[in-house]
Amino acid sequence: MEFKKLPIEIKEQIKLLKERGLIINDEERLEKYLKNISYYHFSIYFKHFQKDDTFIKGTSFEDVLNIYVFDQKLRLLLLDVLERIEKSFKCHLVHEMSIKTGNPFWIAKHDFFQDGEKYNVQITKILNDLISSKEECIKHYYKNYNTPKYPPAWMIVEVLSFGQSVMIFNQLKLENQEVVAKSYGVNKAFISNWFYALSLLRNLCAHHSRLWNNEFILKIYQRHGLYRKLFNNSNGNRVFNYLLVMHIINCKFNPTSKWFEKLENIIIEHKIEISHMGFPNNWKERLNEVIKIEEEI
Predict the structure, then answer these.
(1) How many CA atoms lie within 13 A of 11 on its CB side?
(2) For the chain, which residues make up each domain, given as ranges?
């Protein structure tokens, strides 16, 4: 089927929304938002208030905007925590592997990894791209050294994305994964799944994607003995289980963090129905239980 939709002026977009039943109390305000956010981006939030492209009776633009602003605040809140987790993961990965192998250049040694073919396709490309890197630490290495061919692991991981760092971990031989996982006190299978999930969550936040009622594709591993009772099994592909994993990891190195109190405040401020996010009614008690578990470990 051929895509035949043509672009339309913003005033026509507003007219279309009116025809579909959206209550618009201030057209100038709506026009300002459409000029700077776009109809298409807002349409992601429209769908919750629509049935067959027609808005549910009584839906106003303010209703949609309220959810949009909440989602924006949620992403910013999570990015702060996820940044700390990313830094922690990179630190653990580099330190544990460097000490275990006694080799600062272990990333450049495929012997430490499971699959030589995957290594050549993915990791070798990352290594070769370093030569043209504009990052100061990489430029410094190549300015001052010509051997070995690639910088030490701590320089390389410093310039990698969260996702790339997780990919490197997942390609390590299992005994090497275990060393990194033990530094968090969590089985390697859970670490692999959980950090991959958090790297996806981080990307969604960074690219302004919808979190509020998103149905995530990646299933979170929930059978961990210490934490399994805290997951929401009935609505497991929503954001709550991702936030629970984020909280578990964050508590490993920042046990006094109360980031979820800020979350509670914006939920109350925007009168959010938490079931759309996969939150159980006792969600805050479950997050507090993580703190208690960490204190007892």
Answers:
(1) 0
(2) 10-57, 70-296
